[in-house]
Amino acid sequence: MRAIVRPYRDGDAAAFKALNVAWISKHFVVEASDLKALDHPERILADGGAILIAELDGECVGSSALIPYDADTLEVAKMAVAEHCKGMGLGSALMQTTIEMAEALGAKRLYLESNSKLKPALALYEKFGFVHLPKERRPASPYARADVFMERML
Question: How much is the pTM?
Answer without folding.
Answer: 0.95
